[in-house]
């Protein structure tokens, strides 16, 4: 347990109190493999552009699959933002935490006419093939 807490502190660059708060919000963070935490953290900070405090306040985001949820939904969010179809300040967390049906009904289906390939691109991304 102590080594896991130390690893979380080191990976996320947070204090003991911040780790304690994260664990209180989502105890499952302790069960997540260190490698996964590191990969998800790097993706969130380097690709999505959120900071450590954002992640610390929403530790559940570390539980989601990088390949099947985080990366595909980030792809959709970026495409929609680039086209001016959704707000630039939309919370990544709000996009990630909704269920699959809700996500598709909010972010894929309404744009079928404007971006006809978005649904297929999202499905491919969920299978590990991020479109370029």
Task: Characterize the structure shown.
This protein is an all-alpha fold. The protein has helices at 2-12, 16-25, 34-48, 52-57, 66-82, 92-97, 100-107, 118-126. It has two domains: 2-58, no CATH class; 66-126, no CATH class. Helix 5 packs antiparallel against helix 8 (118-126). The N and C termini lie far apart (41 Å). The model has no long low-confidence stretch (mean pLDDT 91).
Beta content comes to under 5%
Sheet with most strands: none
Can you write the helix and strand succession as a string? HHHHHHHH
Give the overall silhouette: elongated
Count of spatially separate domains: 2
Number of strands: 0
Number of helices: 8
Indicate the percent of residues in helices: 55-70%
| Intertermini distance | 41 Å
State the secondary-structure class. Answer: mainly alpha
Mean pLDDT: 91
Report Rg: 16 Å
Spans of at least 5 consecutive residues whose pLDDT stays below 50 are none
How would the blueprint of this fold be written?
Blueprint: H1 2-12, H2 16-25, H3 34-48, H4 52-57, H5 66-82, H6 92-97, H7 100-107, H8 118-126
Helix pairs in contact: 1-3, 3-5, 5-8
